[in-house]
Amino acid sequence: MRIMVLGGDGYLGWPTALHLSQAGHEVAVADNFIRRHYDDELGVESLVPIEPLRNRIATWQELTGKKIGMYVGDLTDAMFTYHIVEDFRPEAVVHYAEQRAAPYSMIDRKHAVYTQQNNVVGTLNLLYAIAEINPDIHLVKLGTMGVYGTPNIDIEEGWLELEHNGRLDRVLYPKRPGSFYHLSKVHDSYNMEFACRIWDLRATDLNQGVVYGQATDETELDERLATRFDYDAVFGTVLNRFAIQAVIGHPLTVYGSGNQVRGIIDIRDTVRCIQLACENPANRGEFRVFNQMTEAMSVQEIAGTVASAYSADVTIEHLENPRVEAPDHYYNVKYTKLMDLGLEPHMLSDTLIGSLFEITKRYAHRVRIEALRPTVDWRKPSTG
Predict the structure, then answer these.
(1) Which of 77, 172, 224, 271 could pair with 19 in a Cys bridge, judged by C-beta atoms 3.0 to 4.6 Å apart?
(2) What's the pLDDT tens digit per position in 271-305?
(3) Quick count: other Cβ atoms within 10 Å of Cβ 157?
(4) pTM
(5) Would you call 336 a catalytic residue per the annotation?
(6) Which of 87, 288, 320 is nearest to 203 (CA)?
């Protein structure tokens, strides 16, 4: 297949592009490199040094003989979006190209507005480009489990069979997002479902849990192929942050009680899920939703797993929760559709022992300890 990966310079976009290329697909990536600018803005950087995208692509071709195309531009520019779809002629488009951090969207008004404009407008431009150029293209869009919140009922895979006043209907599962970033993903989902319904498009919405890990089979071929490893309190995911804190002897910073439950997934499973979604496309007119996670654990359980897996003593520090979320809640998620397509998941403890601690020890000298502490408070709106 011809597959375009949008956000192909990012933490997940880059290893996804390599995985799809290795699987035999013809791949091109597009990016505006804004993620690298967020580092400059926040005064942090990936724990693992990353090469410029052009160098990464050249290294991949040198090692494997496989070419990856490259486009530089922004999806909020409609002319650019139309151009890349017309020029590359993809059969599937994998869409990662959004501002992905909840804390970043909650810094102040400016960051909230930017997040929603960037994410929603970019996806709208893409939907129009697909509809006008080739409505047979399969859109595979990365969403987030955070759109659901923590409802007191089971979380289905995107849709809910509803009975009300004796009548039945099938509706999109109710959303209760926890940040302006998560809200942007909700808007994306409704726009995509609408486009499938009125333009007969095909789309898969992948509501992904918290990703952990930094290495895939493809990135481990050469250190020049490494993807990002974010650990700061804005862009770093909780598991990656805990692994770094354990290695450097810093207490694991658990927000609140730690009883908040998260869906989690290994980065190796993420790239495999994308492959499965691309190779088994939705039907024309179908908007389907996969819950892309492999385990559910509380933050306290994640911290305990890290502590027990590490060879030295690890302490846990409970901080006041900067987020607005229930300290205790029901959480039962259905996530069978990707398993049915053939996903064989990795488990958390294996990844910690095999990858995260080693990579952290190698680059521990690059850790900025002050970046590990939360600085964004959901309860304090600011104009910036």
Answers:
(1) 271
(2) 999 999 999 999 999 999 999 999 999 999 999 99
(3) 19
(4) 0.97
(5) no
(6) 288
Q: In what order do the strands lie in the sheet with 261-266?
A: 210-212, 261-266, 295-298
Structure letter (DSSP) for residue 347: P
pLDDT in tens, 250-271: 999 999 999 999 999 999 999 9
List alpha helices for 235-298, DSSP H: 238-248, 267-279
- Examine the pLDDT at 358 and tell me if it is beyond 80: yes
Q: What angle do CA 300, 305, 309 make, to 5 degrees?
A: 150
Question: Terminus-to-terminus CA distance in the chain, angstroms?
Answer: 45
Kindly give the pairing relationship between strand 159-164 and strand 167-172. antiparallel
181 is catalytic: yes
Active-site residue identified among 16, 141, 173, 185? 185
The CATH homologous superfamily for domain 2-230+268-294+333-345 is NAD(P)-binding Rossmann-like Domain (3.40.50.720)
Out of 76, 144, 216, 351, which one is annotated catalytic?
A: 144
Written as six digits, the tokens of 142 are 């990365």
Catalytic hit among 104, 181, 212, 255: 181
Q: Work out the angle at residue 137's Cα, subtended by the Cα atoms of residues 196 and 85, and round it to the nearest 5 degrees.
A: 115
What average pLDDT does range 109-123 have in this prediction? Answer: 98
> With bands split at pLDDT 50, 70 and 90, how would you rate the model's confidence at 354?
low
Active site residue 175: no
Helix residue spans in 209-345 (DSSP H): 238-248, 267-279, 299-309, 337-341
